[in-house]
Amino acid sequence: MIEKKLPLRDQKLSEKELCPDALLAGQEAAFARDIERLKARRHEFVQVPCPACGAGDGVPAFEKFTFDYCRCPHCRTLFMSPRPSPQVMAAYYADSENYRFWAKHIFPASEDARREKIHRPRLARVLEYCATYGIPTGTLMEVGPGFGTFSALAAACGRFGKVMAVEPTPELAAACRERGVTVIERRVEDLQNQGLNVDVALAFEVIEHLFEPGRFLSAMAAQLSPGGLLVLTCPNGLGFDIELLGAASLAVDAEHVNLFNPDSLGHLVTACGFEVLESSTPGRLDAEFVREAVLAGHFSLKDNPFLQRVLIDEWERLGHGFQTFLAENGLSSHMWLAARKRRR
Ligand SMILES: [Zn+2]
Fold first, then answer.
1. Which of 221, 256, 308, 329 lies 20 to 30 A from 196 at CA?
2. C-alpha 303 to ligand 1 mean position (Å)
3. Which pLDDT score, from 0 to 100, does residue 19 have?
4. Average pLDDT value for residue range 266-277
């Protein structure tokens, strides 16, 4: 998975700041063609239970791009079902015009800005977890490193004995190597017996894309030393803009088949051999996304005078404080989760 077309929700910047509008238009067209290709294989989609708690009684929530999303009545995870089979997903990413467009036109022009505004703060947070929870910094493994910007930065910071990336896509693995990053060119799910004994395992914006997130987490656990740190980031399906906008939220996407929330992801991680250390929702863009949807005429607050006031009429005065409130109370639509592999 590569960080790509969607605004980067854990940062105080939107994709627009990183990329000219003309490029975004080209990317949208490529994405639309990807969606059509996915629709053409709808007969291969698979009905699934809740990806967090396994309950089979998901309640229809909405559809997007004609795909169906359910909300689990038990853990409130939002998930696509029926969803593309693992084979269909693999073909989707391998043939994605959107990803090709992004890699060719957008990423090269924005890598420096991304390194400073996205990856450096991420690294600082990971190091903070290590310090807070006494995690050794021997080996760091990043799964789904994209072009390797974060892994290269982590290697260069000199705080970890060894940094490696796990990336099965040949083009992305090559990009990581170009940045001096050691790469294992496999899926983490296929490393079961490798026993890499890593101290820190990271997956940024990966778990929402996976057909079987539980299997992925067990595979992460298998490569961690006992007591090792797992860090995940992903959308929070109970966050402000997702709850309010539903299908109109940018986080609800044909690729985001699992929209966990801090509790449901915590339960899943616990079931896969970890103890949760902390979760947080430091997202900064919820209020802005809803405001933009209203201003663009995609969403109306006419029946919600309170939010109309906060997000539109008195935005300059109230917007920032409102977003801070969301972030500090687990209500933003982007979350971080840190967990430790149980010792036995
Ligand atoms: Zn559930």
1. 256
2. 31
3. 61
4. 98
